[in-house]
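The instructor's notes for this session suggest beginning with a concrete chain rather than abstract definitions. Hand out the sequence below and ask the class to guess, before any prediction is shown, which regions might be ordered.
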Amino acid sequence: PASRITVVPNPVDLPFWLALSETGRWLHQELRLWDQDLVLFTPTRVSCTKNIGLGIDILPELKKLVGKVKLLVTGAPDPHAPEAIAQLEGLRRRAKEQRGGSNSSCGSCPCCRRVRAGLVWRCGAGIGSE
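After discussion, reveal the predicted structure:
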């Protein structure tokens, strides 16, 4: 019976074996990265040419395919491009809207179709778009 089954949690101390710093340990805990099925990591400056918005837009489809997904953008806005701050705020609004459900995946745009087909690459802004 199920009442007699004991689940033993993973005994491996991943932060130790990955040699994470205290900051790294805190970040993983704060963002719940260990709980995700997939973490998309973008260590790049925020600019329109990086197409970070696509990453936000495809999250609903990825979640349908693999479960818990997190997009982690670690780059700062380009300090030499005044419009980069506005773009960062726009990306934050977009992500917040999506978490609230008002910006869900349509399932029919080229980006969503590519995700379902397992083909994800940069699109939009004239780069790889259909």
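Then share the key points. The CA atoms of residues 13 and 20 lie 11 Å apart. The beta strands are 38-42, 69-73.
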